[in-house]
Specification:
Layout (H helix, E strand, L loop, with lengths): L9 E4 L7 H11 L5 E5 L4 H9 L4 E4 L4 H32 L9 H14 L5 E4 L6 H10 L8 E5 L5 H9 L16 H4 L4 E5 L6 H13 L1 E3 L6 E3 L3 E6 L3 H6 L5 H7 L2 E4 L10 H15 L6 E2 L1 H9 L5 H15 L4 E2 L6 H4 L17 H19 L4 H8 L3 H10 L7
Parallel strand pairs: 1-2, 2-3, 4-9, 4-10, 5-6, 6-9, 11-12
Antiparallel strand pairs: 7-8
Helix pairs in contact: 4-5, 11-13, 15-16, 16-17
């Protein structure tokens, strides 16, 4: 009956004529561990009831028991069973959201990526995920986590490029009360929060040299020290780092530590840009249309063939994230059931011509002005692809957030430019 049915709670005597209550408990825990089991025992077998608790029973009652007492225990069992079922459902939803189901692709390159993720997940080694902004680096990191032995443990993420350098050390390693202005209480850092699980360091190339030194020490010694603290705290976590920068070039420029790079680069995963796996475009477009039509309560829209021609000719500088943003915007504003060229944003329709050089080298030509015009155009396009988010715009352009802010001020590019 247990194998064929789900039960909210199972109440079993320890002593039974054919199969012992302990054997029933073991079979439930082996096949359906989310079902709470309450054991019934006499005074002479309380020791066995305690053993049953050790093997996973929720509680026990002693004969002759009070019915009201049994009602309370059963009520607690029902609540515990409900919470376990919800937990199982949430984990299933997480796997659907962050597992392979959400990394869309059937191209040869993506099949290789899926295979590599499975192999990486089977190890405990440090991983670095490389790729342009919008290629799905965090999705890959979460898939590694959910396929690994750490799947029941925390996945903690921090974007190293989004946290001011003065605060990054505190965010990673924690701080003690009074260690700096505003530190009104002791605080755990991400290393401690992720204990026993995975810490995902996004945009690790944005770290300052000083923070790089402290990260290297933490990886080598598996110990950290909070800002303002003297005690060393042991940590047991797996590190997955990600970057959209060429770290080897940054090493040559003296901006990234070579020893830290090799400490992070035990295993490497490179996420390909969308322009190099355009055979996945129809699958991605179909997925995002279905997703946003469902979210907005609309009938699933169709794509005109001419639209796919536009998609295939466009270089997608923002990669899959840009494609998703385009589809979301089109589904939101297009009232017809078919998406045509008229539905698409202007930047996708602009022909990608070679630069017009007819005016070059004529009297009055300025190389600096010409380069400034090109820079302004790229900033505007990247900003649009990033939905106006400046940190994502900087990532698309391969520059730091501070550099982007400087260029926006230099070219007087307002927020709506």
């Amino acid at each position: 009956m247990i194998e064929k049915n789900d039960f909210s709670v199972i109440i079993s005597d320890i002593k039974l004529p054919q199969l012992s209550g302990m054997e029933i408990l073991r079979r439930v825990k082996d096949t359906k561990p989310y079902i709470p089991v309450i054991m019934v025992t006499a005074y002479g077998t309380i020791k066995q009831a305690v053993e049953a608790l050790k093997e996973g029973a929720m509680d026990y009652v002693v004969k002759p028991f009070d019915v009201e007492e049994l009602k309370i225990v059963v009520s607690q069992g029902l609540e515990r069973g409900r919470l376990k079922q919800e937990n199982i459902l949430l984990k299933k939803q997480l796997r659907e959201k962050y597992g392979f189901d959400n990394i869309i692709g059937k191209s040869k390159r993506m099949m290789e990526i899926f295979s590599l993720i499975e192999k990486i997940a089977a190890t405990d080694s440090t991983v670095i995920v490389e790729g342009e902004s919008g290629t799905g680096k965090e999705l890959a990191a979460r898939a590694i986590h959910l396929l690994s032995r750490y799947q029941e443990r925390p996945f903690v993420s921090i974007n190293c490029g989004a946290v001011p350098d003065s605060l990054l050390e505190s965010e990673l390693f924690g701080h003690m009360r009074g260690s700096f202005t505003g530190a009104v209480a002791d605080k755990k850092g991400m290393f401690e929060v992720a204990e026993g699980g995975v810490l995902f360091l996004d945009e690790v190339g944005e770290m300052s040299p000083m923070t790089q030194v402290k990260l290297l020490r933490a990886l080598q010694d598996k110990k950290i020290r909070r800002v303002g603290g003297t005690e060393e705290i042991s940590v047991d976590i797996r590190i997955i780092a990600a970057t959209n920068q060429d770290l080897k070039r940054k090493i040559e420029e003296g901006k990234f530590r070579e020893d830290l790079f090799y400490r992070l680069n035990v295993l490497s995963l490179v996420m390909p840009p969308l322009r190099k796996r355009k055979e996945d475009l129809p699958l991605l477009v179909s997925h995002f249309i279905k997703k946003y039509c469902q979210e907005m309560g609309r009938k699933t829209k169709r794509i005109a063939p001419e639209v796919m021609n536009v998609f295939e000719s466009y270089p997608w500088p923002g990669n899959v994230r840009e494609l998703e943003n385009v589809i979301e915007r089109v589904v939101a504003i297009e009232e017809r059931e078919i998406i045509t060229r008229d539905s698409l944003p202007e930047e996708l329709l602009a022909p990608h011509k070679k630069p017009d050089t007819t005016y070059l080298f004529e009297p009055g030509f300025s190389l600096n002005s010409h380069l400034d015009d090109i820079a302004k155009n790229y900033i505007k396009q990247a900003r649009q692809a990033a939905g106006g988010k400046l940190r994502e715009t900087a990532s698309l352009l391969g520059i730091s957030y501070r550099t982007l802010r400087y260029l926006i001020d230099k070219y007087s590019l307002k927020s709506n430019s």
